[in-house]
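Quick illustration, no need to memorize.
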Amino acid sequence: MKRNLRVLEKQNQHYHVSKPTILWLVLFILLSKTTLFATTYTVTTTANTGAGSLRTAITSANADVNVPHTINFNIAAGSTILLSSALPFISRTTILDATTSIGYVANSVGINIDCQNEAHGLRVENAANVEIYGFNIYNATSGIYINGDGADGFKIGAFNKRNFINNSSEYNIYIDGADNGFIRNNYVGTNTAGDAGTDIGNGILLVNSANTNTIGGSVSGEGNLIGGGISTGVNIGSYVGLPASGSSNNIFYGNTFGGTGITINGWAIWIDGDSDNNVIGGILPGQGNNMQNATNGNTANGLGNLVVGINSLDALGNVVRGNNMDCGFGFGIVLNDANASQAAPIITSFIDGLVTGTSTANAIIDIYTGSSCNTVYGKDKPKTYLTSVTANNNGDWIADLTSNSCDASGQRIIASATDLVNGTGAYSDAYGPVVFGNGSGNANLPVIASGPLTLCGNQTINLTAQTGNTGYLWSNGQSGNVLNVTTAGSYFVTAQAASGCILVSDTFLIVQENPTLTVAINGDLEICGNETVDLVAQSGFASYTWSNGFTGSTLTVNSTGGYSVSALTSGGCSAVSGVFNVTASSVAQANFTYVQLDEYTVQFTSTAVNAISWLWDFGSGNTSTLENPQFDFLYDNNWPVSLIVNNNCGADTFNTLVTVIKTGINDLFETPVQIINAESFIQLNGKIKQPADIQVQVQNLQGQILSSSKHYLNSDWQVNIPTDNLAKGIYFVTLHSQNKKAVYKWLK
């Protein structure tokens, strides 16, 4: 270190490195050193002491601060180390891996450690993250002893790396004050074959705030086998029955307590002291513990040996769910005033698969089949977990067991109640045996339909029966667990479960629908101003969705656009309407122009906007409904002419005086005026009586003057008016001379 600092000082002087940078570099070297120089120690002999021994490897690892260490074994799997005295405490982070022994097979014995009753087998003293794999440790006070607050994060056993700990005089695994550890895939208190016990000591102890540890796991290969005639499988919070500081928030999943030839003479799990919120099993796959043979039937204490005991008034919130205690002795769960004496639920009825009961308010109710044997004192213990429900505020609850009928049919059922604060109480008294109805007296066979039970058009509905059974036979004669239904009718299926019970499904009534959807129009599709129109979809559908997103049966429209609606029947069939185009308009606006053609004839031209009808009144009692009428007045006068126009939005009127004066211009000409069409002009010609100046104008139907020119006419005359800039249509040619004029209609 000093050398490193001197080098840094030299670099600092030369390169001007800042002091914070030096400090970070020093810290990096310190942290890196523990990883770069961690050591693997190899055991090469079964000797009790000396070079290559396990004792020497532990001593060497303890002396080296550069962790973590690994202790491997270069000796044959199954070799035995006979201890003449206790091994050194393990005081550094170390992985002791006997699965590295030569010829090791998964879940077999790597190395035997015969402690010969010389205190503890492997003892960890305040060393974090120690891992122990592949050992068979026996004849110890405690086979594995993890001690101290500094011993957190330990791992005892793992998938395919089993330990065997047995024949310990106190506890096979002793956890004192260490947190966040894992005990997985171990045989505790049994022989290495797992089929016989050692009849001595206890299983696992968690004491003095050994918290948040996981014993077992929900994945296959993580659970421990605990049994072998020992007094207590797991003890939380007391030492050999004497109260101590409790342990909390520990999880027990997937463990097996006892078995054929492996019994527990006392409690499977004993919780004592101020041990809170420990979780014993769960309802998800793999979480439940198997406690079927948790006792050997010894009743010397007068109560019978029990499965889970929660002994201390201080213990609270401990949860026991999803465990199989079939054939276990005694009451299953005994509180002894713990868990705030959470009351057991009461099952009150069972009718056609529905079980009802009472409990404390808002408790979680777990339903199980009861024991198939050993119902001592009238108490069943849980065998098969069925389902869970939550009680209401009054403590009433109801659970549907129709999907569990094959498991439950003919069985007694029991329940437990778990309060989220207080924990789990004792099991209820048994109810039953229960018998399912479904019209056949048989257990129910769950069937799932692929959708609503309504065929829409050429649709197919799939009915899928629960798998895992044999001999599926549908009511229409088809076999297999899936039926493809294309025609309306009633369908059910029968099958045989693996247990031999006959299963019958509910009957499914399937109907056919081919719906159509009409829409009524309340109003006009051409809306004016703030007007609206209602589009009313045909009634009788379950839901409606319009093209603009509206979801009612009647759509009120106040803007233009195309509107359609789709609807669903209660059976899930859809129908779609046509498209309704809504347009907008405004009130018509009346106006017109006029041109006097000849004598008393006047051409009227409507210039109204948005009009669809016209009513002319020429002031003489005469009317017209033409858009652009001609009218012959009788004499010179200022005639009051009006035009009324109308559309769906309303009417408008335009009034004006039309001055009509007999033109008389033809008196100037000896011959009528002729208009001759040419390609790019019109030619006017004739013969005038006396020379005169004539004004020639060309107007369109709207009265606009498009051209105007003045000409001096004498005797035979001819005037050419250019028209190449005019579009095809109707025009008026007007000749003016003083107060006289004549108007001629001309078609280009």
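Residues 1-36, 296-306 have pLDDT under 50 and may be disordered.
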